[in-house]
Amino acid sequence: MRIKVLGPMEVSRDEHLITPTATKHRQLLALLALNAGQVVSVRTLFEELWGSEPPNTADQTLRTYILHLRRRIGRQAKEVLVTRHGGYQLDLAAGDLDTQVYERLATEGRLANDQGRTEAASRLLRSALEVWRGPALVDVHVGLPMSVHVNRLDESKLGVLEAWIDTDLRLGRHQLLLSELAELTARFPMHERLCGQYMIAQYRSGRQWRALEIFRTLRHNLVAELGVEPSAGMQHLQRAILNADPRLNDPITVVASAW
């Protein structure tokens, strides 16, 4: 059985879609999938499905939901969705959950980056990002327990994006990054590292004025929203751009030391 959660939820077996349609069934299976190979306690499942006030019939209702999921899974369902002491466990083969594929590629990409294999790092990190088909579990109701996993995945994706952009800046692909960085800085207008990467990409594309404009916008947002100035690293980068510091065109120096 294969499960995808990095985007709309999708469950398949033997190339046939078996994605649950009922809201609670989807929510239950998603939480179990995000904890694949681990026991999820009944208490946690109650909290996910009903918050802090589960109904008096919660035990029986949960067992009914599990029964429905097993029927949908089909053969050997009890070996896939296993009853454990105090909870339930979803057992999947390696690579049958898209988060596992994503995390493996991201780890391999970071390792390649650490080893100085920049081309390989760029390819692996980009492949990790391509596993995502949209916001995680965009069509599933997310309770408190599952929100912890979703937030972790969102933060992880942002970190992989930053690392991939760094590698492509090292490879001289600054012009190819402009549209991606324009979208990212619009979504995260106070994210200093993304703004710094955008500034570098614009400067290397011959748009010094645009790089300085990005800094002014960042500073305005930080002062207006948080009452703080950009970090010392960002101010250093701004001065380097103002002075046309030749080190700005040295990919390794800029990416490693600008922040």
From TrEMBL:
GO terms for molecular function: DNA binding. Residues 1-92 bind DNA. Transmembrane segments: none annotated. GO terms for biological process: phosphorelay signal transduction system; regulation of DNA-templated transcription. PROSITE patterns: OMPR_PHOB. The keyword Nucleotide-binding does not apply. The keyword Coiled coil does not apply. InterPro entries: AfsR-DnrI-RedD_regulator, BTAD, OmpR/PhoB-type_DNA-bd, Sig_transdc_resp-reg_C-effctor, TPR-like_helical_dom_sf, WH-like_DNA-bd_sf. Residues 1-92 form the OmpR/PhoB-type domain. Keywords: DNA-binding, Transcription, Transcription regulation. Belongs to the AfsR/DnrI/RedD regulatory family. This is DNA-binding SARP family transcriptional activator.
